[in-house]
Predict the structure.
Amino acid sequence: MMLRRFGRLFAAAIFTLLAAAPVAAQDYPTHVIKMVIAFPPGGPTDFVGRLLADKMKEQLGQSVIIENKPGAAGAIGADSVARAAPDGYTLFLTTSGAVAITPHLQPDTHYDPVRDFAPISKVVSVTTTLVVRPELGVNSAKDLVAMAKAKPATIPFASTGVGSPPHLALELFQSAADAKFVHVPYRGAAPAITDLLGGQVTAMFADAPVLLPHIQAGKLKPIGVASGARNPLLPEVATLREQGYADTVADNWYALFAPAKTPPAIIAKLNQAVRTALADPVLRDKLINSGAVPSPTSPEELGKFLKEEFDRWGKVIREKGIKDG
């Protein structure tokens, strides 16, 4: 009798646990969602994240708040999300750096991007743009290469830090052009742009959103993009590939992830919220006008893309002997 009773209770408990999972996913979300961004407030990732969070709130019926966790090239924010509960209430909006580049440069990172995150959707693609000061008299990437070849290893070329997408774009550009610049790494785009405007450095790659205000003001001149396609706001600026420099694609991108093992039903609901948000005409215009191109994907597409980017940048970092610091 006791055994039969225990068996019934055990079966009921198992049934309850199995039934609870889909119900929880169906009811999700029931409270505030946190979106971690591994950069300080005010930057392009933060700008995109806040626009996306506001629209996702409309779709999900719950507030999506931003938590900025900068530091260690995105590793601090990434690690905090990797360790979070896989319940859909902690998300990670990141650039390519933290999940495709940083782990190759910092062997002591505590997370594996492919293993520890559940892909939700790519959000935007960001054109990596090559700029100089207008008074330099350089009108194309070829002009800049000619200058570098006339004075090898003397022209200072800024980046937003060792191993950043702009630095990797420079490495690809140098190889394709068979030219050598002097790499000058900075702690972010703002100080690098300040020194470029002041003439302390000659050129730099950076994300289109941080450069556009200076380009539109006539203070910086775009002479090429390290992308697979031209930027809609800079249609006259040819890609480096179009200018004869193959294998110089170094697009940055922002994507949304959750901790690994987040239930597929929750991932699907979040993916739909991202897609609906990015289809909104007002949001699309704001993003495109800032230099970011909406690029939603399925979770499966993002997972495949992340693995390809992780492997590609790992190969570049090993071949070029790039080391953090």
About this structure: Confidence is low (pLDDT under 50) at residues 9-23. The chain has two domains: 31-126+252-320, 128-225.
